[in-house]
Amino acid sequence: DTAVSQTPKYLVTQMGNDKSIKCEQNLGHDTMYWYKQDSKKFLKIMFSYNNKELIINETVPNRFSPKSPDKAHLNLHINSLELGDSAVYFCASSQGWGSDNEQFFGPGTRLTVL
Amino acid sequence: AQTVTQSQPEMSVQEAETVTLSCTYDTSESDYYLFWYKQPPSRQMILVIRQEAYKQQNATENRFSVNFQKAAKSFSLKISDSQLGDAAMYFCAYRRTHAGNNRKLIWGLGTSLAVNP
To answer: What number of other Cβ atoms are within 10 A of residue B80's Cβ?
Structure first.
């Protein structure tokens, strides 16, 4: 049983297109995250939602819009894709705001913008 | 602002031997958490070990252990009896304990570990 799942795992698209990445967790967690990992493996948080409310919103272009329809889902929509958006995007989840809450990561979505 | 530094971009170890990955961090906080995550070629991020700053005892998980030096702000990971499956990127991460809504992890740049048969 997959704890945190992402679809699709691979996404190849043209510049200027709009695409979405979906994330679902079946752990009963109330906090979810989106990370971006660039080609140099640098991992950077983009967004965090707690109980469907946006908690963390790092400096991310407004072309990126997260949507959390419920606690188990956090989708990432990207408008007007650019070459620099090519990266691996990870979804993660954790339980609450407790101090020792481990983050569970999804398998990642490799986005390639041509 | 907190920072995490991993000074070894790449490391290698012979199978069955021991390797230590270094991590240093900078913070003015007294309470925080430190983590080591593993990212194998499958890309999955997996928690390896966690250390609470208020605990003096070093965390241990099977073949993985840490050397936590709070005064020196150092948090190294030791892998004993290295196995081929240990080959991966290893990320050190930090999180404040009492940070209100700002509970984000601060990540190092990673160390790529190769295990030679």
So the answer is: 14
Of A43, A88, A97, the CB nearest to B103: A97
Q: How far apart are CA B28 and CA B12, in angstroms?
A: 33
Burial class (CB in 10 A: 0-12, 13-18, 19+), B85: exposed
pLDDT in tens, B59-105: 999 999 999 999 999 999 999 999 999 999 999 999 887 655 556 78
State the CB neighbour count (10 A cutoff) for residue A58: 14
B88: nearest CA partner in chain A: A41
**B31 confidence band (pLDDT: 50, 70, 90):** confident
Tell me if residue B85 falls in helix, strand or coil.
helix
